[in-house]
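[Automated response] Your request has been received and processed.

Submitted sequence:
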Amino acid sequence: MMQKVGDAVSQAAEKAGATLAGVKEKAQAAFHDTKESVKESVSSKESKEVPLPTGNRGVVYNGPGKIEIKSVPYPKMELPWNGQPVVTGAILKVLTAGICGSDLHPYRGRTAMAPGTVIGHEFCGEIVEVGPGVQTMKVGDWGAVPFNVSCGTCPSCKELRPETCDWSNPEKRLVGQGGLFGYVCGGGWQGGQAEYVFVPWIDYNFLKFENKTLAKQKLLDLTLLTDVLPTAFHGTCEAQVEFGKTVYIAGAGPIGLAAAAICHLKGAARVIISDFILERLELALRLGCLTIDLNHVSDEKQLAERVKELNGSEFTDCGIECVGYEARDFSSKKNVCAAALNGVIEVTKPAGHIGVLGAFFVGDPKAPSASEKAGFYNLPFGKAWMKGQKIQGGQASCMRYMRKLQQMIMCDKLPIAKILDVRVIPLDDVPNAFSRFDDSSPHKFIIDPHNVLNMKKGSTSGSSTTTTSGSTASTESTAAF
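Generated structure:
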């Protein structure tokens, strides 16, 4: 009996072993098939990936009055001054890029930009390649890039002052500023008026657009997040613009108009803006500003009289300077670097606050005097001191303001492209746009290197072009306030 039981157990064990072996064999076969299937899938996916571009074109500075569209090297993920790899950077396909008034300074020979520099510090882009150290961004993301090149980890960046980043510009000890894309004394970073551009420290230097469909509709407005809007907002903060205050703004270019729009959003009771260019003053009138034509102002005293006519007082609570060192004298109409700032000091009240957004540099080859060439300006500091005014200048801390301004755009509170009468141009039209801007065009020009906005075929920089359903570039643009 025991023998039979033993035989039965043995047979059962052999059968179970055979069954387990079969299961194991089938499992191994299935695993092998799955592995091969995954490999084939990955191989197929890789074979279908679009290869990264290798060519690039950009707006290249070749000296005063000389810019051209030419082939430039495809960006490399490295520091421009020593070639060290930047594993936390990304390469962007440029979606849009603005031409800034600051770009006119080297164009006019008022700063010593290195020939061969790709210009441009106002741009939005799509990430096409990321370094191995990137953590929060990925290929395909759309976003805006601040004009300050900043690392996000140094003491200055941690204090929310990325414009003075300690690591993005080897010349900081001499010039005091952090890195800049495509500009003078900015560390050698190539600019965004191109088809492709390298952006270092992309996790910090990139404001991602979460809704790409909506972002495309508002891409012109969002492009102005990269410089114009945060710079203008920064000026209103420096001037302490608040509900019920009166404001005087010198300069009705893109920065001045943007500052005026933000003053209205902050609840300013009255905004007065001045300029020599009548077309710019017309845009300011549409925005609801009171305007002063400086062609009929001979000195600071007469400026104060015009302010009193409009304001009931010769003083405003706040002042914002949006002209810089290429300002014109009230009487001679010739360049006197501090003329606009002196006017702001004159009409801003005692103990008032002044924000200086216009650029003032050390080193101006064509300044009207030797002292101004070296960055020393004729300011009525005694008057400003006796009036107890607070004057602040310098570049804007873009990233401090960009997200909130983005939300204002997305919620239809700030139609800045309409306010600035934006004109969209292809890359090849940039030299013509520079010439027009230099000739006092009132328009803001935005470049569309890849025709992302589907411009009408045959349109030019002078045509009225509706580019998206959310942002319009048109000669009939008005502010929606």
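Summary generated for your ticket: The chain has two domains: 54-227+396-481, 231-392. The longest strand covers residues 90-98.
If you did not submit this request, please reply to this message.
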